[in-house]
Amino acid sequence: MSAAKDKALVKMELLSMVIGTDKQQTNKNDDRYQLLSDSKTVQQALKTLKEVGNEVLYKLMEDYFLNCLRNGIPSGIQREPKPGDLLEIFRTNYSYWAVYVGYDCVVHLAPPHQHVSVGVGSQKSARKDTALVKMERLSVVAGNDKYQVNNKHDDEYQPLPPNKIVQRAFKEVGNEVFYKLIQEYFLTYLRYGIPGSNQQEPKPGDLIEIFRRGYSHWAVYVGYGCVVHLAPPLIADIAPLKRELLYVMVGSNRYQVNNKYDASDPPLPPSRIVRRAWKLVGKMVPYNLLHNNCEHFATRLRSGVPRSDQITNALLKLPSLAVNLMELMQ
User: Fold this and answer.
1) Within 13 Å and on the Cβ side, how many CA atoms surround 278?
2) Cβ neighbours of residue 318 closer than 8 Å, sequence gap 6 or more
3) Which of 108, 109, 161, 167 would disulfide-bridge 98, Cβ 3.0–4.6 Å?
4) Which of 108, 115, 229, 296 is catalytic?
5) pLDDT tens for residues 32-53?
Protein backbone atom coordinates (compact mmCIF):
# COMPACT_ATOMS: atom_id res chain seq x y z
CA MET A 1 0.00 0.00 0.00
CA SER A 2 1.39 3.40 -0.95
CA ALA A 3 2.47 5.69 1.87
CA ALA A 4 0.88 9.09 2.42
CA LYS A 5 2.18 11.75 4.80
CA ASP A 6 -1.19 12.18 6.54
CA LYS A 7 -2.05 8.48 6.81
CA ALA A 8 -1.18 5.71 9.26
CA LEU A 9 -1.34 2.00 8.44
CA VAL A 10 -3.04 -0.40 10.87
CA LYS A 11 -0.60 -3.30 11.27
CA MET A 12 -0.28 -6.51 13.28
CA GLU A 13 3.28 -7.44 14.26
CA LEU A 14 5.20 -9.35 16.90
CA LEU A 15 5.59 -7.36 20.13
CA SER A 16 9.34 -7.94 20.10
CA MET A 17 9.62 -6.41 16.62
CA VAL A 18 7.59 -3.33 17.57
CA ILE A 19 9.57 -2.72 20.78
CA GLY A 20 13.00 -3.45 19.32
CA THR A 21 15.64 -2.36 21.82
CA ASP A 22 13.33 0.08 23.61
CA LYS A 23 11.78 -0.42 27.04
CA GLN A 24 8.11 -1.04 27.63
CA GLN A 25 5.64 -0.58 30.48
CA THR A 26 2.00 -1.45 31.03
CA ASN A 27 -0.31 1.56 31.39
CA LYS A 28 -3.90 0.87 32.44
CA ASN A 29 -4.52 4.10 34.27
CA ASP A 30 -7.09 6.42 32.71
CA ASP A 31 -9.62 7.90 35.10
CA ARG A 32 -11.80 9.20 32.24
CA TYR A 33 -13.04 5.74 31.26
CA GLN A 34 -14.41 2.57 32.76
CA LEU A 35 -12.00 -0.19 31.74
CA LEU A 36 -13.39 -3.21 29.96
CA SER A 37 -12.79 -6.66 31.40
CA ASP A 38 -9.81 -8.55 29.98
CA SER A 39 -12.07 -10.83 27.94
CA LYS A 40 -13.99 -7.88 26.47
CA THR A 41 -10.73 -6.09 25.67
CA VAL A 42 -9.59 -9.13 23.69
CA GLN A 43 -12.97 -9.33 21.94
CA GLN A 44 -12.71 -5.66 21.06
CA ALA A 45 -9.22 -6.22 19.66
CA LEU A 46 -10.36 -9.22 17.63
CA LYS A 47 -13.09 -7.09 16.06
CA THR A 48 -10.38 -4.69 14.98
CA LEU A 49 -8.38 -7.36 13.12
CA LYS A 50 -10.45 -6.45 10.07
CA GLU A 51 -8.78 -3.02 10.23
CA VAL A 52 -5.33 -4.53 9.64
CA GLY A 53 -4.01 -3.27 6.33
CA ASN A 54 -6.30 -0.25 6.25
CA GLU A 55 -5.07 3.32 6.22
CA VAL A 56 -6.44 5.81 8.76
CA LEU A 57 -5.88 9.51 9.11
CA TYR A 58 -2.67 9.82 11.11
CA LYS A 59 -4.10 12.66 13.20
CA LEU A 60 -6.29 10.04 14.91
CA MET A 61 -3.02 8.94 16.52
CA GLU A 62 -2.49 5.87 18.64
CA ASP A 63 -4.30 7.43 21.60
CA TYR A 64 -7.71 7.48 19.88
CA PHE A 65 -7.22 4.05 18.37
CA LEU A 66 -5.86 2.23 21.43
CA ASN A 67 -8.10 3.93 23.99
CA CYS A 68 -11.10 2.74 22.00
CA LEU A 69 -9.73 -0.82 22.04
CA ARG A 70 -8.87 -0.78 25.73
CA ASN A 71 -11.74 1.21 27.16
CA GLY A 72 -14.53 0.83 24.65
CA ILE A 73 -16.90 3.70 24.03
CA PRO A 74 -17.36 6.18 26.91
CA SER A 75 -20.41 5.60 29.11
CA GLY A 76 -22.09 8.78 27.86
CA ILE A 77 -22.49 7.22 24.42
CA GLN A 78 -25.77 5.32 23.96
CA ARG A 79 -24.40 2.73 21.54
CA GLU A 80 -21.49 2.50 19.13
CA PRO A 81 -22.37 3.42 15.54
CA LYS A 82 -20.70 1.83 12.52
CA PRO A 83 -18.12 3.72 10.42
CA GLY A 84 -19.91 5.71 7.74
CA ASP A 85 -23.14 6.12 9.72
CA LEU A 86 -24.79 9.52 9.82
CA LEU A 87 -25.54 10.66 13.37
CA GLU A 88 -28.34 13.01 14.33
CA ILE A 89 -27.59 14.73 17.63
CA PHE A 90 -30.58 16.28 19.36
CA ARG A 91 -29.79 19.78 20.57
CA THR A 92 -32.39 21.87 22.42
CA ASN A 93 -34.12 23.33 19.37
CA TYR A 94 -32.51 21.64 16.39
CA SER A 95 -30.65 18.57 15.12
CA TYR A 96 -26.88 18.59 14.67
CA TRP A 97 -25.32 16.13 12.23
CA ALA A 98 -22.02 14.26 12.01
CA VAL A 99 -20.55 11.22 10.26
CA TYR A 100 -19.00 8.48 12.39
CA VAL A 101 -15.48 7.49 11.30
CA GLY A 102 -14.63 4.94 14.00
CA TYR A 103 -12.75 4.88 17.32
CA ASP A 104 -15.29 7.20 19.04
CA CYS A 105 -14.57 9.89 16.40
CA VAL A 106 -16.87 11.89 14.15
CA VAL A 107 -16.31 14.38 11.34
CA HIS A 108 -18.65 17.36 11.38
CA LEU A 109 -19.08 20.96 10.26
CA ALA A 110 -18.28 23.37 13.07
CA PRO A 111 -20.25 26.65 12.76
CA PRO A 112 -18.22 29.89 12.66
CA HIS A 113 -18.61 30.58 16.39
CA GLN A 114 -17.11 27.15 17.20
CA HIS A 115 -13.89 27.57 15.17
CA VAL A 116 -11.86 28.37 18.24
CA SER A 117 -12.67 25.10 20.01
CA VAL A 118 -10.13 22.32 20.24
CA GLY A 119 -10.04 19.51 17.70
CA VAL A 120 -8.32 18.30 14.57
CA GLY A 121 -8.68 20.98 11.95
CA SER A 122 -9.08 23.90 14.35
CA GLN A 123 -6.04 25.95 13.35
CA LYS A 124 -7.54 28.01 10.52
CA SER A 125 -8.85 31.50 11.11
CA ALA A 126 -12.60 31.83 11.48
CA ARG A 127 -14.79 33.67 8.97
CA LYS A 128 -18.37 34.60 9.69
CA ASP A 129 -19.69 32.88 6.54
CA THR A 130 -17.70 29.64 6.70
CA ALA A 131 -17.79 26.40 8.64
CA LEU A 132 -14.74 24.34 9.51
CA VAL A 133 -14.63 20.59 8.92
CA LYS A 134 -13.43 19.08 12.19
CA MET A 135 -12.76 15.65 13.63
CA GLU A 136 -13.56 15.21 17.32
CA ARG A 137 -14.63 12.53 19.76
CA LEU A 138 -18.30 11.63 19.53
CA SER A 139 -18.51 11.87 23.32
CA VAL A 140 -17.30 15.49 23.11
CA VAL A 141 -19.54 16.55 20.22
CA ALA A 142 -22.66 14.86 21.63
CA GLY A 143 -21.99 16.00 25.19
CA ASN A 144 -25.08 15.34 27.31
CA ASP A 145 -27.41 15.33 24.31
CA LYS A 146 -28.98 12.20 22.91
CA TYR A 147 -28.23 11.03 19.41
CA GLN A 148 -29.32 8.37 16.97
CA VAL A 149 -27.96 6.72 13.84
CA ASN A 150 -30.06 8.20 11.05
CA ASN A 151 -29.17 7.00 7.57
CA LYS A 152 -32.59 8.16 6.47
CA HIS A 153 -31.84 8.33 2.74
CA ASP A 154 -30.61 4.72 2.40
CA ASP A 155 -33.95 3.59 0.99
CA GLU A 156 -33.70 6.23 -1.73
CA TYR A 157 -29.97 6.21 -2.52
CA GLN A 158 -27.25 3.58 -2.46
CA PRO A 159 -24.65 4.52 0.18
CA LEU A 160 -20.97 4.29 -0.66
CA PRO A 161 -18.86 1.55 0.98
CA PRO A 162 -18.08 2.46 4.62
CA ASN A 163 -14.32 2.67 4.05
CA LYS A 164 -14.87 5.10 1.16
CA ILE A 165 -17.20 7.26 3.26
CA VAL A 166 -14.57 7.42 6.01
CA GLN A 167 -11.74 8.20 3.59
CA ARG A 168 -13.80 10.98 1.99
CA ALA A 169 -14.51 12.41 5.45
CA PHE A 170 -10.82 12.31 6.41
CA LYS A 171 -9.87 14.25 3.27
CA GLU A 172 -12.23 17.08 4.25
CA VAL A 173 -10.86 17.56 7.78
CA GLY A 174 -9.38 21.04 8.15
CA ASN A 175 -11.18 22.50 5.12
CA GLU A 176 -13.36 25.59 5.32
CA VAL A 177 -16.66 25.44 3.46
CA PHE A 178 -19.41 27.94 2.91
CA TYR A 179 -21.66 27.62 5.95
CA LYS A 180 -24.88 27.75 3.93
CA LEU A 181 -24.19 24.15 2.95
CA ILE A 182 -25.44 23.19 6.47
CA GLN A 183 -24.36 20.02 8.18
CA GLU A 184 -26.86 17.54 6.76
CA TYR A 185 -26.18 18.65 3.18
CA PHE A 186 -22.44 18.13 3.61
CA LEU A 187 -22.72 14.76 5.31
CA THR A 188 -25.29 13.39 2.86
CA TYR A 189 -22.73 14.03 0.13
CA LEU A 190 -20.07 12.13 2.12
CA ARG A 191 -22.33 9.09 2.53
CA TYR A 192 -23.95 8.91 -0.91
CA GLY A 193 -21.71 10.88 -3.27
CA ILE A 194 -23.74 12.34 -6.14
CA PRO A 195 -26.97 10.27 -6.12
CA GLY A 196 -28.09 8.79 -9.40
CA SER A 197 -24.81 9.50 -11.19
CA ASN A 198 -22.41 6.90 -12.54
CA GLN A 199 -20.31 9.55 -14.26
CA GLN A 200 -16.96 10.89 -13.10
CA GLU A 201 -17.35 13.22 -10.15
CA PRO A 202 -16.64 16.86 -11.06
CA LYS A 203 -14.08 18.96 -9.21
CA PRO A 204 -14.93 22.29 -7.52
CA GLY A 205 -14.80 25.06 -10.11
CA ASP A 206 -15.59 22.78 -13.07
CA LEU A 207 -18.12 23.90 -15.67
CA ILE A 208 -21.02 21.47 -16.07
CA GLU A 209 -22.84 21.21 -19.40
CA ILE A 210 -26.32 19.69 -19.10
CA PHE A 211 -27.86 18.48 -22.35
CA ARG A 212 -31.46 19.68 -22.56
CA ARG A 213 -33.63 19.12 -25.61
CA GLY A 214 -32.40 21.58 -28.24
CA TYR A 215 -29.81 23.42 -26.10
CA SER A 216 -27.26 23.10 -23.28
CA HIS A 217 -27.71 24.48 -19.78
CA TRP A 218 -24.55 25.47 -17.89
CA ALA A 219 -23.59 25.52 -14.21
CA VAL A 220 -20.53 25.72 -11.96
CA TYR A 221 -19.76 22.81 -9.65
CA VAL A 222 -19.03 24.07 -6.11
CA GLY A 223 -18.47 20.75 -4.33
CA TYR A 224 -20.47 18.36 -2.15
CA GLY A 225 -22.84 17.48 -5.00
CA CYS A 226 -23.90 21.12 -5.51
CA VAL A 227 -23.90 23.51 -8.45
CA VAL A 228 -24.54 27.23 -8.79
CA HIS A 229 -26.28 28.37 -11.97
CA LEU A 230 -28.28 31.13 -13.61
CA ALA A 231 -31.83 29.79 -13.63
CA PRO A 232 -34.42 30.68 -16.31
CA PRO A 233 -35.96 34.17 -15.94
CA LEU A 234 -38.84 34.46 -13.50
CA ILE A 235 -40.21 37.73 -14.84
CA ALA A 236 -39.29 39.44 -18.09
CA ASP A 237 -35.49 39.76 -18.18
CA ILE A 238 -34.67 39.09 -14.49
CA ALA A 239 -33.26 35.67 -13.47
CA PRO A 240 -32.27 34.17 -10.08
CA LEU A 241 -28.85 32.74 -9.22
CA LYS A 242 -29.53 29.42 -7.54
CA ARG A 243 -27.71 26.69 -5.68
CA GLU A 244 -29.06 23.20 -6.32
CA LEU A 245 -27.98 19.60 -6.03
CA LEU A 246 -26.44 18.49 -9.31
CA TYR A 247 -28.56 15.37 -9.62
CA VAL A 248 -31.76 17.39 -9.01
CA MET A 249 -30.92 19.95 -11.66
CA VAL A 250 -29.80 17.34 -14.22
CA GLY A 251 -32.90 15.22 -13.77
CA SER A 252 -33.13 12.60 -16.51
CA ASN A 253 -30.73 14.47 -18.81
CA ARG A 254 -27.04 13.76 -19.38
CA TYR A 255 -24.25 16.04 -18.30
CA GLN A 256 -20.50 16.37 -18.74
CA VAL A 257 -17.62 18.38 -17.30
CA ASN A 258 -16.74 20.82 -20.08
CA ASN A 259 -13.98 23.33 -19.36
CA LYS A 260 -13.58 23.90 -23.09
CA TYR A 261 -12.43 27.53 -22.82
CA ASP A 262 -9.45 26.87 -20.53
CA ALA A 263 -6.91 27.01 -23.37
CA SER A 264 -7.89 30.55 -24.35
CA ASP A 265 -9.19 31.77 -20.96
CA PRO A 266 -7.06 30.47 -18.04
CA PRO A 267 -9.29 29.58 -15.08
CA LEU A 268 -9.11 31.23 -11.68
CA PRO A 269 -8.04 29.11 -8.67
CA PRO A 270 -10.86 26.65 -7.75
CA SER A 271 -11.29 28.13 -4.26
CA ARG A 272 -11.82 31.58 -5.75
CA ILE A 273 -14.31 30.29 -8.33
CA VAL A 274 -16.34 28.57 -5.61
CA ARG A 275 -16.30 31.57 -3.28
CA ARG A 276 -17.36 33.90 -6.11
CA ALA A 277 -20.23 31.52 -6.89
CA TRP A 278 -21.44 31.21 -3.28
CA LYS A 279 -21.51 34.97 -2.80
CA LEU A 280 -23.93 35.32 -5.72
CA VAL A 281 -26.46 32.71 -4.59
CA GLY A 282 -29.92 34.18 -4.09
CA LYS A 283 -29.32 37.33 -6.11
CA MET A 284 -31.46 38.45 -9.05
CA VAL A 285 -29.57 39.57 -12.17
CA PRO A 286 -30.48 40.86 -15.64
CA TYR A 287 -30.97 38.05 -18.17
CA ASN A 288 -30.21 38.41 -21.85
CA LEU A 289 -30.14 35.42 -24.18
CA LEU A 290 -27.48 36.98 -26.39
CA HIS A 291 -25.24 38.63 -23.79
CA ASN A 292 -25.94 37.24 -20.30
CA ASN A 293 -27.30 33.70 -20.38
CA CYS A 294 -26.41 30.69 -18.22
CA GLU A 295 -23.24 29.92 -20.21
CA HIS A 296 -22.05 33.53 -19.98
CA PHE A 297 -22.56 33.38 -16.20
CA ALA A 298 -20.70 30.07 -15.74
CA THR A 299 -17.73 31.03 -17.90
CA ARG A 300 -17.45 34.44 -16.23
CA LEU A 301 -17.21 32.73 -12.84
CA ARG A 302 -14.52 30.31 -14.02
CA SER A 303 -12.20 32.70 -15.87
CA GLY A 304 -13.64 36.18 -15.67
CA VAL A 305 -14.41 36.08 -19.41
CA PRO A 306 -18.07 35.58 -20.43
CA ARG A 307 -18.50 33.30 -23.45
CA SER A 308 -21.34 31.40 -25.10
CA ASP A 309 -20.47 29.27 -28.11
CA GLN A 310 -24.01 28.00 -28.54
CA ILE A 311 -25.26 31.57 -29.09
CA THR A 312 -22.33 32.42 -31.38
CA ASN A 313 -22.90 29.27 -33.44
CA ALA A 314 -26.64 29.93 -33.62
CA LEU A 315 -26.08 33.48 -34.90
CA LEU A 316 -23.67 32.21 -37.55
CA LYS A 317 -26.37 29.85 -38.81
CA LEU A 318 -29.00 32.59 -39.18
CA PRO A 319 -27.99 33.72 -42.70
CA SER A 320 -28.15 30.18 -44.07
CA LEU A 321 -31.48 29.61 -42.33
CA ALA A 322 -32.83 32.78 -43.89
CA VAL A 323 -31.70 31.64 -47.34
CA ASN A 324 -33.34 28.26 -46.86
CA LEU A 325 -36.55 29.95 -45.71
CA MET A 326 -36.57 32.19 -48.81
CA GLU A 327 -36.07 29.17 -51.05
CA LEU A 328 -39.00 27.40 -49.40
CA MET A 329 -41.22 30.44 -49.94
CA GLN A 330 -40.43 30.63 -53.68
Assistant:
1) 19
2) none
3) 108
4) 229
5) 445 445 565 566 555 555 555 5
- For every residue of 18-77, DSSP letters joined together read HHTTS--------TTSPPPPHHHHHHHHHHGGGGTT-EEEGGGHHHHHHHHHHH-S-TTS
Active site residue 229: yes
Residue 113 annotated to the active site: no
Q: How do residues 272-307 score in pLDDT, each as one tens digit?
A: 999 999 889 999 999 988 889 999 999 999 999 999
CATH 3.30.70.100 fits 86-192, yes or no: no
At the top level of CATH, the class of 207-313 is alpha beta
CATH of domain 7-71: 3.90.1720.10
* Identified catalytic residue from 68, 108, 115, 217: 217
Can you tell me the mean pLDDT for 104-126? 63
Quote the pTM value.
0.67
Single out the residue of 190, 182, 143 nearest to residue 164, CA to CA.
190
Count the neighbouring beta carbons within 10 Å of the beta carbon of residue 24.
8
Among residues 144, 109, 10, the alpha carbon closest in space to that of 69 is found at 10
Q: What is the mean pLDDT of residues 228-251?
A: 89
Catalytic: which of 68, 108, 294, 296?
294
* Of residues 252, 198, 208, the one with CA closest to residue 230: 208
Domain boundaries, the chain: 7-71, 86-192, 207-313
Q: Is 160 helix (H, G, I), strand (E, B) or coil?
A: coil
Q: Are 283 and 241 in contact (CB under 8 A)?
A: yes
Q: 207-313: same fold as 86-192? A: yes
